[in-house]
Amino acid sequence: MNDRFLRACRGEPTDVTPVWFMRQAGRYQPEYRRLRARYRLLELARDPALCAEVTCGAVESLGVDAAILFSDIMVPLEPMGVAFDIREGTGPVVSAPIRRAADVERLRPLEPERHLRFVGEAIHRCRERLAVPLIGFAGGPFTLASYLVEGGPSRDYAATKRWMWTDPEGFQLLLERLSEAVAAFLAYQIREGAAAVQIFDSWVGALAPEDYAERVLPHLRRLVQAVRPLGAPIIYFGVGTATLLPWIRTLGVDVIGLDWRIPLGTARAQLGDQQAVQGNLDPAAVLAPWPVVAAKADAILAANGGRPGHIFNLGHGVLPETDPAILRRLVDWVHARPVGEGGRGAHG
Amino acid sequence: MNDRFLRACRGEPTDVTPVWFMRQAGRYQPEYRRLRARYRLLELARDPALCAEVTCGAVESLGVDAAILFSDIMVPLEPMGVAFDIREGTGPVVSAPIRRAADVERLRPLEPERHLRFVGEAIHRCRERLAVPLIGFAGGPFTLASYLVEGGPSRDYAATKRWMWTDPEGFQLLLERLSEAVAAFLAYQIREGAAAVQIFDSWVGALAPEDYAERVLPHLRRLVQAVRPLGAPIIYFGVGTATLLPWIRTLGVDVIGLDWRIPLGTARAQLGDQQAVQGNLDPAAVLAPWPVVAAKADAILAANGGRPGHIFNLGHGVLPETDPAILRRLVDWVHARPVGEGGRGAHG
Fold first, then answer.
1. Which residues is B138 bridged to in the sheet?
2. Helix or strand (DSSP H, E) at A138
3. B261, pLDDT greater than 70
4. With bands split at pLDDT 50, 70 and 90, how would you rate the model's confidence at A89?
5. Does the pLDDT at position B347 exceed 60?
6. What distances in angstroms separate CA B17 from CA B11, B136, B137, one per listed residue?
7. Residue ranges of domains in chain B, CATH in brackets
8. CA–CA gap between residue A82 and residue B138 (Å, rounded)
9. Has residue B36 got a pLDDT over 60?
């Protein structure tokens, strides 16, 4: 078993920097597009054999150091009573948005053992096939709430924030229920065999730091405390979180995912070496000619300066227009740099 | 003439903190919606009498300390040969996106005196009616380029960035042409009577700092150098620019606009007191109950700590669902706090 990824999560030295990519199984792959011509996204996620095929296929084509279970952050919401559809090019669309405490009261508690056995089954199948650790995941409570309240993706999260400020009790109840569900779901994935879990709190970067600290962080703290005893490393990721890092740092997760807007060296200096970092190549950068990609990868390795506890990744999910061959080349490139020497290529 | 806004731009003391709002003339106003029922956005922008009515009406209803000319950042592109439409709820849609040097070569140089006389005329009319300074504006070169290349608003700016890295000369030529046009347009607005100008570089926050520094900043620098001799204060604003501030600081503008993701005190500490700052209430925060709005406004004034050179504003444009009465109350609230005592309300 290749344990580079898990060693880096724990801040232990590795021979080379481990690599994986958010959304490494996805529309950029011809084999995924072929499957999607026959199945909807949620059909793939709910069928353990197809899910394992998509999850493991990506690892095998790319040569990455970790698998991430193919799924969608909306999946655990369905058994809670939320009807939604995932529309191509748009994202999740919720039929009846949740906007008051009474709507929250109607959410059913998530029982992953009963509701999401297909996830456990997919994890078992992946584990049998994989020679790298499998990452389980769930959406962060604020991010999930934003889809439930807005009814879909949003530019400004106005309805979500309005509720957060207008009826704090109702909104906090929603975050509480979601956090409980996420904690249960992550714990279930770990028990079934996920070696690490990532909390995708993609949209928290829409919040002013004081709102994040006051209204979201307490829920995340309880969530992390609930999952931590299971022993699997926890990764926390959000987009545009540069000014939230002082608070994210206090969460007690093992790995902090960074997007490409914050230089990795700056983040490292702010965060210290107690927690590992993951990132942070601009996902659009892999559309550039190879010398640009290589120089940018080298610059990230150089910014890390050879310290243990760095997992190479993009700063957000792989874009659909990405060439799979470039991702593969990028994995090989990072794997060819012994840790501590990664920066050389960027300068000499 | 109320000169609080201009004094603050220059870092001079003021009795109270000047206030204006980005997109203070817009869909949130019933009077604007009534006009828009009869005229398209570009019709309003191109008719000096209607444009002055919209521009000045907002100032008079809100009691703000500055007017901003009603227009759209796409307006100067039309005489350059770009065909586009502004679609309700979407934004600008460009008929034939620009994606290679040959497309750039076809752009005509902007001659504002000839092409945009309606803007000059609108400025004259506003000046006759207004008792506050009028702000002229233009889009930043990268932001304009992003619309031209993507063909409309974008989530990831993949086509823009791809071109930036794949054909640096072609893309730099585009930024150069746009910068020249923007410089000419801003200079024209100042000559016609704009007392200050704002560069709306809304989408630069999509760039990694090194790309901003290497590929965009040089154009902005030349743009600022071209406009600076005219003597009107220059405001530079972008969304999500927390990690770009070390570079924005070097631009030599008078005022740096901040969005709500960076605490104003943090920005002040990074930027020093050489340049004024503008912002930075979350535009969604004015949807909250009044006590929340007041507390957040007080916290921003407190974070500024009574230093001269702060212009109160939202961190981005007014949202369409905003209640005009709350904005008016917010203006009065900020105006009731003598500078240096603004913070008291937040704590006691």
1. B199
2. strand A134-139
3. yes
4. confident
5. no
6. 12, 21, 22
7. 18-273 (3.20.20.210)
8. 44
9. yes
Mean pLDDT across A261-283: 97
Chain A with chain B: Cβ pairs closer than 8 A: 90
CA dihedral A36, A41, A47, A48 (to 10 degrees): 90
Mean pLDDT for all residues in chain A: 96
Q: How far apart are CA B53 and CA A158, in angstroms?
A: 29
Res. A348: pLDDT tops 60: no
Q: Two tokens at B116?
A: 């945009």
Q: How far apart are CA B182 and CA A6, in angstroms?
A: 51
Give yes or no for a contact between B164 and B215, defined as CB atoms under 8 angstroms apart.
yes
The model's pLDDT over A144-158, given as tens digits with 9 standing for 90+, comes to 999 999 999 999 999
> Is B205 at the interface with chain A, CB within 8 A?
yes
pLDDT at A90: 87
Alpha-carbon torsion (B98, B101, B103, B106), positive or negative: positive
Token pair listed for A26: 């996805």
pLDDT digits (tens, 9 = 90+) for B229-246: 999 999 999 999 999 999
For chain B, give the secondary structure using H, E and C. CCCHHHHHHCCCCCCECCECCCCCCCCCCHHHHHHHCCCCHHHHHHCHHHHHHHHHHHHHHHCCCCEECCCCCCHHHHHHCCCEEEECCCEEEECCCCCCHHHHHCCCCCCHHHHCHHHHHHHHHHHHHCCCCEEEEEECHHHHHHHHHHCCCCCCCHHHHHHHHHCHHHHHHHHHHHHHHHHHHHHHHHHHCCCEEEEECHHHHHCCHHHHHHHHHHHHHHHHHHHHHHCCCEEEECCCCHHHHHHHHHHCCCEEECCCCCCHHHHHHHHCCCCEEEEEECHHHHHCCHHHHHHHHHHHHHHHCCCCCEEEEECCCCCCCCCHHHHHHHHHHHHCCECCCCCHHHHC
Radius of gyration of chain A from its Cα atoms, rounded to whole angstroms: 19
Q: What is the pLDDT of residue A344?
A: 44
**C-alpha angle with apex B320: B317 to B326, nearest 5 degrees?**
85
Distance in angstroms (rounded) separating the CA atoms of residues A16 and A335: 6
DSSP label at residue A316: S
Residue B344 has pLDDT above 70, yes or no: no
Q: What is the ipTM of this complex?
A: 0.95
What's the whole-number mean pLDDT along residues A113-120?
98
Catalytic status, residue B155: no
User: What's at B177, amino acid-wise?
Assistant: R
Mean pLDDT of all residues in chain B? 96
Closest-CA distance of chain B to residue A36, Å: 23
Instruction: Fill in the DSSP letter of residue A250.
Output: G
Q: Per the CB < 8 Å rule, is A165 touching B261? A: no
* b/e map B224-246, b = 16+ CB within 10 Å: bebbeeeebbbbbbbbbbbbbbe
- pTM (2 d.p.): 0.96
pLDDT at B341: 54
Please check whether residue A346 touches B, CB under 8 A: no
- Chain A residues touching residue B205 (CB < 8 angstroms): 240, 261
pLDDT bin (cut points 50, 70, 90) of residue B89 is confident
Residues of A forming the active site: 23, 27, 36, 72, 147
Q: Tell me which chain A residue has its CA closest to the CA of residue B258.
A: A208
Q: Which of A282, A321, A323, A326 to mutate to test the interface with B (most CBs of B within 10 A)?
A: A282
Is residue A266 predicted with pLDDT exceeding 80? yes
Segment holding A293, helix H or strand E? helix A290-304
User: Which of B10, B27, B129, B249 is the catalytic position?
Assistant: B27
CB A14: neighbour CB atoms within 10 A?
A: 19
- How far is it between the farthest Cα atoms of chain B? 62
Mean pLDDT of A71-75: 97
CA neighbor of B252 nearest in space, from B238, B235, B264 = B235
Residue of chain B whose alpha carbon sits nearest to that of A241? B261
